[in-house]
Design a protein that fits this description.
Blueprint (H helix, E strand, L loop, with lengths): L1 E3 L9 E7 L6 E2 L4 E6 L4 E5 L4 E6 L6 E3 L3 E6 L6 E2 L53 E2 L16 E2 L1 H10 L17 H5 L18 H5 L14 H16 L2 E9 L1 H13 L2 E2 L2 E2 L5 H15 L5 E3 L4 E3 L5 E3 L1 E3 L2 E3 L2 E2 L7 H16 L13 E5 L18 E5 L3 E6 L5 E14 L5 H16 L7
Parallel strand pairs: 6-9, 17-21, 21-22
Antiparallel strand pairs: 1-8, 2-4, 2-7, 3-6, 4-5, 6-8, 10-11, 12-24, 13-14, 15-16, 17-20, 18-19, 22-24, 23-24
Helix pairs in contact: 6-7, 6-8
């Protein structure tokens, strides 16, 4: 039985095997953990689906492979165990003759001559006509994939294929550095500017080699991109290039909310000697935005290419900072949950997000998000919309500020500045202002959030 790299969400194209729990030749039982994988979003253990002997490990720890790739084999123990590094050469396969339409005049060439041909990009062990793995797309001369025809046939990861398409790079000009010569994402990132063929490619900036040429060797340290940082870079670049952002900022008097929060935390019961809950300001912000989206349903929507999708419930994403990146787990149906329920769910999601234990369904989807930098003392900022969301609410730090009283006197109030980033394709200026005003109303009258 082949052991495959599992699919962890529709947007996850590849994963890294960080650890094998079993060695070749060991017995395995159904449900017993075989290996641990890490993607740009999650880390999880993959269990065995059958009993037998792990007779072969094809992909060692530390290697990155696309979803669907065979990483090991479980058998009855009669097959000799071995470990095949992903770069181990396989038997050479002779390329098939070119199709008649592309046939060239016959030329007699000695077998040892290193003649250039349409298989110049082939690597040892590759099949020129097909791949047994449906996740490895193999290109042949007979098939035209857009502006670039891929001669001979070679493999490329889905992420590399997408990055090449965005940059207008002819993949036939890229030499793969992955297993068996596979073209991977880093090959696209490091491709010289001369290969980038679209106007949009200029926005990607100079290549790594061109940047490094500006600095003295040894004056810097190279930090390779992991899957998460690569995904963040790609998604946010896409966001600022394709989403027409505009920003609305408003000050909110949260004095009554702070008093309500303190009273609620003080009245919280004990659970094993500890408070049953401890509400944060962010918990109230989540609840306020969820209720506001219900009161302004036209803003509870996303752009979907040729249409707008409007949602019945308020699914709110909340940005969580991780080592080397961030992730946005989603509170589903937030308008139906109490502030204490939101608080407990958010704490659980945060812990599992930082351990990379989230499931794809826990960080995908949603129509709006919240990014809070108040705990870092940031007074005000504008956040980049996280596709496919149409809005994101940036929350700064609360501050004491002198304010004029209704009687003309001067007093101090607790003020919170928030900035709503809007996708103008979905949310117009007036609609965005209405949504932000509704958030303000809930936060300045927090009892309404408890009803």
């Amino acid at each position: 039985m082949d052991v495959l790299m599992p699919q962890l969400g529709e947007t996850v194209a590849e994963g890294k095997i960080t650890k094998w729990f079993k060695s070749a030749g060991e017995q395995v039982k159904p449900g017993e953990s075989l290996f641990e994988i890490e993607t740009d979003k999650v880390s999880m253990e993959v269990p065995s689906a059958t009993a037998g002997v792990l007779v072969e490990i094809r992909v060692p720890a530390g290697a990155v492979v696309p979803v669907g790739a065979i990483v090991g084999v479980i058998g009855d123990g009669t097959r000799r165990a071995k470990i095949d590094p992903p770069t181990a050469p396989a038997a050479r396969v002779s390329p098939p003759p070119p199709p008649p339409a592309a046939a060239a005049p016959a030329v007699s060439t000695p077998p040892s001559a290193p003649a250039e041909s349409k298989t110049a990009h082939m690597r040892d062990g590759e099949r020129p006509k097909m791949s047994l793995n449906p996740f490895f797309e193999v290109r042949t001369p007979e098939r035209n994939y857009g502006p670039a025809r891929w001669p001979g046939g070679f493999t490329v990861t889905p992420l590399a294929r997408r990055l090449a398409g965005e940059a207008g790079i002819d993949l036939s000009q890229v030499r793969g550095s992955g297993p068996h010569g596979r073209v991977v994402a880093r090959d696209i990132d490091e491709a010289p500017r001369s290969l980038r063929g679209t106007p949009a490619a200029s926005a990607l900036g100079p290549s790594a080699a061109e940047i490094k040429a500006l600095y003295e060797p040894g004056s810097y340290e190279e930090v390779p991109l992991d899957g998460m940082r690569r995904t963040i870079a790609a998604r946010l670049t896409q966001a600022v290039q394709t989403i027409p952002h505009f920003y609305l900022t408003m000050d909110i008097d949260i004095g009554r909310l702070i008093a309500l929060r303190e009273e609620a935390n003080h009245a919280a019961g004990k659970d094993d000697g500890k408070p049953a809950f401890k509400l944060s300001l962010n918990d109230f912000v989540i609840r306020a935005l969820a209720l506001a989206l219900q009161d302004v349903p036209a803003a509870n929507a996303v752009w979907a290419g040729d249409r707008i999708l409007r949602f019945r419930h308020s699914d709110i994403g909340v940005a969580v900072a991780l080592d080397g990146g961030l992730i946005t787990p989603v509170i589903r149906d937030a308008e139906t949950k109490t502030v204490s329920a939101i608080s407990a769910e958010m704490k659980d999601l945060t812990v599992r997000a930082r351990d990379k234990k989230l499931k794809p369904g826990e960080y995908q989807g949603g129509a709006a998000a919240i990014s809070n930098l108040g705990m870092h003392g940031v007074r005000e900022f504008s956040a980049i919309i996280n596709p496919p969301h149409a809005t994101i609410l940036a929350v700064g730090a609360a501050r004491r500020q002198a304010m004029e009283k209704p009687d003309g006197g001067v007093g101090f109030a607790s003020i919170l500045s928030v900035t709503l980033s809007c996708d103008h394709r979905v949310v117009d200026g007036a609609l965005g202002a209405e949504l932000l005003t509704t958030v303000k109303t809930f936060m300045e009258s927090p009892v309404r959030m408890l009803v």
